[in-house]
Amino acid sequence: MSPLGTSPSGPWSHTSGRRLFVVLLVLLLAVGALVRDAVAAAGPGGSGAAATPDLARYDVDLRSDADGGRWTGRQRVSFRNASDRALHEVYLRLWGNGEDGCGTPGGPCPVVVSGVHGGTADPLTVNCTAVRIALPKPLARGKRASVAFDVSITVPDRNARFGREGAFRFLGNALPVLAVHDAKGWHLDPYVAVGESFYALTGDFRVRLDHPSSLAVPATGRTGTRPAGPGRVVTVSVAERVRDFAWAAGPFRSATQTSPEGVRVRSYWAPGTSAEGVRLSRAEAVAAVDRFGREFGRYPYGEIDLVMTGGFGGGMEYPGLVLLGTTAEGSAVVHELAHQWWYGIVGNDEYASPWLDESFAQYANFRFYGLDTRDCWSDVYWPDDGTVLTASMDYWSRHRGEYHLVYTAGPCALADLERVLGSGTMARLLERYARDHWYGVSSTEDFQRAAQSMTGDDLGPFWERHRIG
Length: 469
Fold this sequence. Notes:
The protein is of the alpha+beta class. The protein has helices at residues 14-41, 275-296, 333-338, 355-369, 393-398, 405-421, 423-436, 444-452, 460-465, and strands at residues 54-64, 70-80, 87-93, 111-117, 120-121, 130-139, 144-154, 162-165, 168-171, 177-178, 181-182, 185-186, 203-212, 222-227, 232-242, 247-249, 253-258, 264-269, 303-309, 315-318, 321-325. The chain has a seven-stranded mixed β-sheet with strand order 4-7-2-1-13-15-14, with no helix packed on it. The chain has a five-stranded mixed β-sheet with strand order 17-18-19-21-20. A four-stranded antiparallel β-sheet has the order 5-6-3-10, with no helix packed on it. A hairpin with a 5-residue loop joins strand 1 (54-64) and strand 2. Helix 6 crosses helix 7 (423-436). Mean pLDDT is 90; it is low at 1-48.
């Protein structure tokens, strides 16, 4: 049939039709080129601003001193440029320097990087939590490069996620990791002690930790040990598609059990920690890792380590490892295990959108314990009309007395959303949302779109009423 049903002898003959097609094709190609040029010129908002560097591979070889308080060695990280634009630099985040900055009067900062190979390092910035490494030549889209460096880690004398308690050392956020460049540019946010500043893409870690055999070393990933000379062993850990790597060291007692769904739960506790609290935390961890696996997607890492002491404040989550203050009443293990999904697997920028991991983990915690959330708003007080649930850590760090809203108003809002959508629909929403962002990065807008797709009712008033968006 001829175009528009006309005869071949009319104005739409085969010859003239071909000419018009060629003209249209040339115009489309020209317009496409203009659009691409405009996107490139537009800066970070264009397609060239895909989150990068990605597909990172960390190879780490560290040796500890006698008590696990100091670790020295070599680290190499290779990475790909996922952006359309050439990558001229990368940044390392040295989060372990967050509390002390560039050092204390008695010595240098806790994490020191030196001997950089594969690029040229600038002086430390952002209160010594970031270092720019200029690459020797531009890295094109899809190409890989690597940098290597010596690293020295000295555990600070404080009971914290990067700190110590008696004979026990905690090395959370101690290992340098790559910063992220995305549509907003390089993320070089400052460290915050209340809450988290962390934003990282998933990567693969192979970490070799040489330490005295008297020390147990729980760590992110699947771990094993082998002899390393008189009085020493090497703990080797392999972790794939994780956002960070953490470990601890000390004369822990330990026990291992496997959940009904096949997840190995390895528990480490300091002598003197409440035996009842350890027992309860272990039981709840086994139940929670399977339950959340059914609700949000099967736990993919095979192993989770619980590190428990009596004096650690609250809890802190890392991929495959959680630090827990444990009393006779138990610990925050369920909340921290929920973080394996909400931040670990389904990532988010923890500085820009802390509610996306903390509120979601606390909502999962409420569901696990069967808490009645119909009246949970009684614990919520909004200080003024300008306070929103989706505020960044820039706001919360300046209003520390309000930060609890992320843990109170946040899960209450999600519980209200469950009542609006229905429990079955809410369950499907969370399972699909996790699946769609598995190993990726989510945003508040992503969640709003996902929720809206589950109902024909306009959720705009809901978001406004709950100060989301």
